[in-house]
Specification:
By secondary structure, the chain is α+β, with helices and mostly antiparallel strands. It is built from 21 helices and 17 strands. InterPro entries: FAM69_kinase_dom (IPR022049), FAM69_N (IPR029244), OTU_dom (IPR003323), Papain-like_cys_pep_sf (IPR038765).
Length: 700
């Protein structure tokens, strides 16, 4: 129906309504007149009754009665006329108002009709756009071929992947998987930029979010170039805004924009068709960024991956060892991890990988060199991936309540410290986090390092999604570190610089620690064999270290894997604990309440335990101690380490006394009737410390 016909219909309806109103008004006036006639008859009856009672011979009273009757009739007529006039005036006012309302209603109805149609059109358009975005933003779930390996989709996927891999092999490349979260195109380009020989990754584009912002701005500023290629029903400005703020997928237009922004060609390797090159005009100046395009890799949409060299380059033999570092940088670019180390590790090229010391699913140790200061450090972690099995995160989605998230993290922190350190702390004490995580390594300082009660009160009824997103990333990062025993122990006691390795910072689950030369290294072993002075100097340092871990912490720290490989030397001559995996506090050595049949069942490496034959349970306390193991394993080398003990070949002047001390220290007696050695007394430690100090002073 047209707008004009709608208005005519509205007028017709209103006119009919007006006619009905007039009929109602006429009926009401007739009722009033009928009542007036009835009242007049009643008045006449009253007058006749008054006349009958009058004496006809009494002229004076008759005159008075006539005057009263006339007055009564006049009053009645006036009353009826006033009532009728009042009614008619009221009706006239209502009619006038109704006429004005009719004109206003006609205009209003016309406007509402137009707005309704416009709103209908807008809603329809919006619905189409929203449905399209829902499809784009739907989480793409990886298909598991174990469920249906012969399904048509699985067959297509294998065929597509095989063809793409064959094309890449011809160019000595391989597929590098990128997370399928709506950012795949941008993440693949950022990954290529990091590996580009042309250093395309500049200071303005270092991660996915920055690339999205550049693409959004480029599309808005070049509207005439790109808008004709958009569907007519798409809101161009809204789409550009969503590129910046949402994880919507990218396609041909976004690839064209990226090529223009970077002034670099982008090549797309796909199953069918020739190689697609975008930005060929830049081919003479820069190497292309090479991506792969997959139609069937995931069940609900297309996907882009990055590529990597198939073989290691001769001048970069550590590419495979750097894989984990690059994976961490990709997560940082996607804003999935955070940390003070991320920028230096991923973008500034401050650190260069020198050697992979250990790389397993349960431990990473990478030797790094600071190219500016030429100092060495190590990247460590007790797990290979940040979230390998999708179960290693504290929060899998953006937190919906900041107070609840903070309470959860504080509870976990309190539980972890109690479990590992036997500490009972207030779960709402904000100083707890401050003691563990240094102030300059925390991004959300106000939320995590200030008074928790004030923070909870401020955000009780306030929610900021951007802040919640940042806090989710940081809490997941801190949780990944909190789960690592070595990090937690070294960082909590970071002020104990004489015994704990220094930690510089972290990025996700990887943390950077000072490099310590293991005491079993060939260069140190060679030095120890040269002179007695070197050996007695090292023995004094080892005694000081044992003294510290026994007496300077809140409890004795039991070093259950005492060997030179787990102790390290700093460049300035300090001896520190190098490997803390087997270091535990009292009652937290993993032997408590274990079932046992022999005493050996209750021993945890060098920490000897006792088996109660009656209950067949291990006692919770250790029987020997750190000093006893130091004397037995290192000073006398009864088990391992050097070909001979560190304190073999004692000079004649101190041979008798020191030999006696070492014997008493390594075998201070047996526990009950067992062969388990008791702990060496601290008095022996003090005697040997004084002896070694005097000896080094005399020699020097």
């Amino acid at each position: 129906m047209s707008d004009h016909s709608s208005v005519l219909n509205t007028r017709s309806i209103n006119q009919n309504s007006h006619a009905d109103t007039d009929n109602i008004n006429e009926n009401e006036e007739e009722i009033i007149l009928q009542r007036h006639r009835k009242d007049r008859r009643d008045l006449q009856a009253q007058i006749q009754q008054m006349k009958k009672q009058l004496n006809k011979n009494d002229k004076q009273r008759k005159k008075k009665l006539d005057e009263d009757i006339k007055k009564m009739e006049d009053d009645f007529d006036q009353k009826c006329q006033d009532e009728l006039n009042e009614y008619r005036n009221r009706q006239q006012t209502e009619v006038s108002n109704n006429l004005s309302t009719l004109h206003l209603d006609e205009h209003t109805n016309h406007i509402e009709e137009q707005e309704s149609q416009e709103q209908y059109k807008k809603s329809r358009k919006q619905r189409r756009l929203e449905n399209k975005e829902k499809k784009r933003e739907l989480d793409v779930l990886a298909y598991d071929p174990k469920n249906d390996i012969e399904s048509p989709l699985a067959i297509k996927r294998r065929q597509e992947t095989a063809i793409i891999e064959k094309k890449l092999n011809e160019r000595h490349l391989r597929i590098y998987q990128v997370t399928s979260d709506g950012n795949c195109l941008y993440a693949a380009i950022v990954d290529q930029l990091k590996r580009s020989n042309d250093n395309g990754l500049n200071e303005n584009i270092r991660n996915v979010q920055q690339l999205r912002e550049h693409v959004s701005s480029h599309l808005l500023s070049n509207r005439l170039l790109y808008q004709p290629f958009f569907p007519e029903d798409d809101d161009y400005d809204l789409y550009c805004k969503k590129i910046r703020h949402q994880n919507i997928w990218g396609g041909q237009i976004e690839l064209q924009a990226c090529s223009k922004i970077l002034s670099q060609p982008i090549e797309i390797v796909q199953e069918t068709g020739p190689l697609l090159t975008i930005g060929e005009e830049y081919s003479n100046n820069k190497q292309p960024l090479i991506l792969t395009y997959h139609r069937y890799m995931y069940t609900n949409g297309e996907h882009y991956n990055s590529t990597r060299p198939l073989k290691l380059k001769e001048n970069n033999e550590h590419d495979d060892d750097e894989e984990d570092k690059w994976e961490q940088c990709a997560l940082y670019s996607l804003n999935q991890v955070t940390g003070s180390l991320c920028d230096s590790l991923c973008f500034s090229e401050t650190f260069a990988l020198q050697h992979c010391l250990q790389l397993t699913n349960s431990k990473i140790i990478l030797l790094m060199k600071n190219v500016t200061s030429n100092n060495y450090s190590v990247i460590k972690s007790n797990r290979l991936h940040f979230d390998h099995h999708h179960t290693d995160l504290l929060f899998h989605d953006v937190i919906q309540s900041i107070p609840n998230a903070l309470r959860t993290f504080h509870d976990i922190l309190n539980f972890t410290l109690n479990k590992r350190f036997a500490m009972q702390l207030n779960s709402t004490d904000h100083h707890t986090i401050r003691r563990i995580y240094r102030h300059d390594n925390i991004k959300n300082k106000f939320l995590l390092l200030e008074d928790l009660h004030q923070v909870l009160d401020k955000y009780k009824d306030y929610y900021d999604r951007s802040l919640a997103s940042d806090l989710t990333v940081e809490l997941n990062t801190l949780y990944s570190l909190l789960d690592q025993h070595e990090f937690l122990l070294a960082y909590y006691y970071r002020t104990k610089k004489s015994m704990m390795p220094h930690i510089y910072g972290w990025c996700g689950h990887l943390y950077l620690q000072e490099y310590l030369t293991p005491l079993n290294s060939k260069q140190i072993e060679k030095q120890m064999h040269k002179t007695w002075y070197k050996r007695v100097w090292l023995a004094e340092k080892l005694l000081d270290l044992i003294d510290n871990i026994d007496n300077s912490l809140h409890q004795t720290l039991h070093f259950c894997d005492m060997k030179l490989a787990n102790l390290g030397l700093t460049f300035d001559g300090q001896v520190k604990l190098l490997d803390l995996d087997m270091a535990h506090f009292d009652r937290h050595i993993p032997i408590e309440m274990m079932n046992c049949s022999t005493h050996e069942d209750c021993s945890y490496f060098d920490c000897s335990g006792y088996c109660d034959r009656k209950t067949q349970k291990c006692h919770s306390r250790r029987i020997n101690n750190n000093l006893q193991v130091l004397c037995e394993k290192i000073f006398l080398a009864h088990k391992e380490n050097f070909d001979h003990g560190l304190l073999d070949d004692i000079p004649f002047r101190m041979n008798d006394v020191l030999t006696k001390y070492l014997k008493q220290c390594s075998l201070p007696g047996r526990y009950k009737t067992t062969l388990i050695p008791n702990g060496a007394p601290i008095s022996l430690m003090r005697l040997m410390q004084a002896m070694f100090e005097q000896e080094t002073r005399n020699i020097s």
